[in-house]
What we know:
By secondary structure, the chain is an alpha/beta fold. The protein contains twelve helices and nine strands. The chain has helices spanning about 15-30, 55-65, 90-95, 110-120, 135-145, 165-180, 200-205, 220-225, 250-255, 260-265, 285-290, 295-315, and strands spanning about 45-50, 70-75, 100-105, 125-130, 155-160, 180-185, 215, 230, 270. Strand 3, helix 4 and strand 4 form a beta-alpha-beta unit. The longest helix has 19 residues, at about 15-30. It starts with 13 loop residues before the first helix and ends in an 11-residue tail after the last helix.
Amino acid sequence: MSYRSLLSILDLTPGEVNQLLDAAASYLPRIEAGGFKDATLKGYSALLLFYEASTRTRSSFELAGKMLGMDTINIGAKGSSVEKGETVRDTALTLNAMHHNVVVMRHEAPDAVALFARYFDRAVLNAGSGRGQHPTQALLDALPLRQAGVLQRSKRIAIVGDLKHSRVMRSNLQLLTSFGLDVVLVAPPTLMPEGWEGLKPAYWAADPTGYGEVSWSTDFDRVLPGLDAVMMLRVQRERMGDAHITNTDEYSKLYGLSRRRLKLLPESAVILHPGPVNRGVEVGEDVFADPRCLINDQVTSGVALRSALLCWSCGKLEGTDGQA
């Protein structure tokens, strides 16, 4: 049996990304109609191993697995052997001996999922690893962008917010630039990653030819009129008390997507946010009523994309046997 793991967006070529998006798009109508039930993954099992809290990612993987006939088991750090000192390596060896097919894992350490995958013989899907990667989020974000005609060369997208701590930004930046999009990173200086130039494709792509450009700005208003899409990131309230941000009101005034800023954004542009949203901080209430807002579409896309990804990881992606 052929298994495939997804630890980073860099594990996928643009062709493989399109393959997953095609499969996810085929699930969307059935999900939008209320869901489906088939036996594609009947007899397979997935462990949802989450060391950090999650609602959207965990529930979408669980729902996707159940619709595909899969057995899904939730495991959290609280109440497990982790509290007794079990290491990531030991957890991987233990679960490997149980012969589950897929482990969907989230962890606060950036290298923990990759370490787990070294000791687990079947499929591992990275559901978020510290400040490192969140590849399934980038894939689900790409689906509504593609449907809106934005996932193509020379389009321009801004990623705005807490870039310093964001795994969503890193995965999205790598995926989007691989399709030729130009990405502008927008944040206050205190939330810009150290050495942000290291995020450019020339530093991490084997061959950056054809990749989009990466730039940065601290002036949100100046960037808005030239965009095809804007992706707002969550400001983590647990960081509000430190030196990164003085207060939420000041942040919202400078970097929130407000009614005034909606007027600066082109009519053809689209708006995304990976959630959960701090209403009135990253985005104002007017955003949700704006026809350009795709935030709810992202949630639906999450179930569809993760359905495709579970099939892909088990070599059951229709017409491909899981292969690129």
